[in-house]
Amino acid sequence: MLAGQLADGRWALAGMWGEAEAVNLALLDSDSGGVADRSELAIATLPCPQGQFPSIALHHAPAHRLERAINDLFGLEPVGAPDDRLWLDHGRWGVHYPLGACTKSTEALQPYVFLGAEGEGLHQIPVGPVHAGIIEPGHFRFTANGETVVRLEERLGYTHKGIDSLMAGAPIDRAAQLAARVSGDSTVAYSIAFARAIEAALGVEIPDRAHWLRALMAELERIANHLGDIGAVCNDAAFALMHAHTSVLRERVLRTSNDCFGHRLMMDKAIPGGVNVDLDARGMEKIRSLLAVIREEFPRLIDLYDETASLQDRTVGTGFLAPALARQYACGGYIGRASGRSFDARRDFAYPPYDSLRFEVPLFKEGDVNARMWVRIREVEQSLGLIDQILTGIPSGAISVAVQPAGRICEGVSLVEGFRGDILCWLRLDPDGTIARCHLRDPSWFQWPLIEAAIEGNIVADFPLCNKSFNCSYSGHDI
After folding, report:
1. Which of 78, 93, 246, 359 fits 55 for a cystine, CB–CB 3.0-4.6 Å?
2. Which of 99, 102, 78 is closest to 25 using CA atoms?
3. C-alpha triplet 80, 84, 90: angle, nearest 5°
């Protein structure tokens, strides 16, 4: 029934993960975008005592890779799945199904078979997993007709870290550190997502000041990443001047973060129970000075982007993502919002302190590289306004409370807006407070597949530009 409702668009797939003998679905009310009091998130669990479950991907394409990952890790078979190839398992682990009925790998895996394409004059171009730049590994298999891309197929999983396995049995403080390192550029968002799931499971209410400090860190993280992306997209269009200037502004954000919170990325600062570092008057002044610099420099850079015809020629109309696909895949962040999907967990789930702050969620419908750039630009502006409100309205008081085991099995879930989009955290705690099972879902799981659709019909040379405009996380996906 749920598979049919997903296919009909009644629900959006927010996550799918396995356990030793069960599969879990996270379902998001697909009509909730933009209406905060209608947002709903539900978790459905299906026991799989026979090691099988009916394939969701058979009815709903966004579940394809999630099902393959479940099979790789737990050995649970999605019956009727359209694609039974391995996904995270590249034959390097020495075992099969490490989180389920673990068995030794006694023979080499067969070579990975990429999907074919038929037609005259087609040729394949393999790219990666090792790339020319200092970036994470991923393989891209292009089928092209001349310079025009006919099909792109990705292969990921090269940065698999075994996060799900490392979480099992970990105490809360150790698990929080693992969560903060799933994707380093989103360390604050991941830390908040994990902390909120722990607090939900244990019924912990943290001090108001801690909520506001978390949001301040999250908005600084968002600004830093958007500035980096804006410059990097321009750099891939051979406009290095923008990259240089936005890199300077991003560095200012990172240095200010370090001065105020003791770490350039603010890693391990948001913790279950609150935060572990406060902001003094000197820090508030430093952040106000940073905002003044960005407000002075940023508009001139945006004018430069908007008025450079050669740059617009590369970004406008390139890498079009259809709004219907963005909606089907529940694609979050700037990618979804550039293709008309109005969803932002800060607004639609209104977790504190965003329920007390005023901001707009930028929305465009063009779905191209240029639209994804403009969402980033507008989000920087909105984040500047949010930080103003936080510095003005932040309450005084304590910044953390103790987190104690509940003495029983309990579960918690959270959905937090990172700079790429919504991050899901679901966990179960044992009576002693250690982690029985924790699953963290990066927004990239529902964004990576859409690059394959967005690049179709474009030229091969535009792939770096399109790929950077998405800027999906390899590490966040590969868990």
Report:
1. 78
2. 78
3. 160
Enclosing H/E stretch for 478: helix 474-478
In CATH, which of 1.10.645.10, 3.90.1150.10, 3.60.21.10, 1.10.3720.10 is domain 163-443? Answer: 1.10.645.10
Residue 38 is predicted with a pLDDT of 55
CATH fold, domain 2-104, is Beta Polymerase; domain 2 (3.30.460)
d(CA 48, CA 69): 16
Tell me the two tokens of residue 52.
């099988």
Position 57 pLDDT exceeds 60: yes
Nearest CA to 442 among 198, 186, 224? 186
**Are the C-beta atoms of 165 and 479 separated by less than 8 Å?**
no
> b/e for 114-136, b at 16 or more Cβ within 10 A?
beeeeeeeeeeeebbbeeeeeeb
- Secondary-structure percent of the chain, ordered helix, strand, coil, rounded to 5: 45, 20, 40
User: At residue 358, what is the residue type?
Assistant: R
Q: Are the beta carbons of 371 and 338 closer than 8 angstroms?
A: yes
Question: What's the pTM?
Answer: 0.96
> 126-135, 144-153, 306-315: which range is least confident on average?
126-135
3-state secondary structure (DSSP) of residue 439: strand
Backbone φ and ψ of 237, nearest 5°: -100, 20
Distance CA 184, CA 344 (A): 21
Nearest to 117 by CA among 82, 83, 142, 85: 142
Residue 43: φ, ψ to 5°: -115, 125
Residues 6+ apart with CB under 8 A from 129: 137, 138, 139, 155, 158
d(CA 395, CA 372): 35
pLDDT digits (tens, 9 = 90+) for 99-147: 998 888 877 777 899 988 888 889 999 998 998 878 899 999 999 999 9
* Closest alpha carbon to 205 in 402, 362, 49: 402
- Ramachandran bin of 230, using left for φ above 0, alpha for ψ from -120 to 50, beta for the remaining angles: alpha
User: Helix 448-455 vs helix 64-74: angle between axes, to the nearest 10 degrees?
Assistant: 140
pLDDT of residue 36: 43
Two tokens at 45? 């669990």
Q: Cα(first)–Cα(last) distance of the chain, in Å?
A: 29
Token pair for 256: 């200010």
Token match 């980096």: residue?
Answer: 228
Tokens found for residue 39: 């947002």
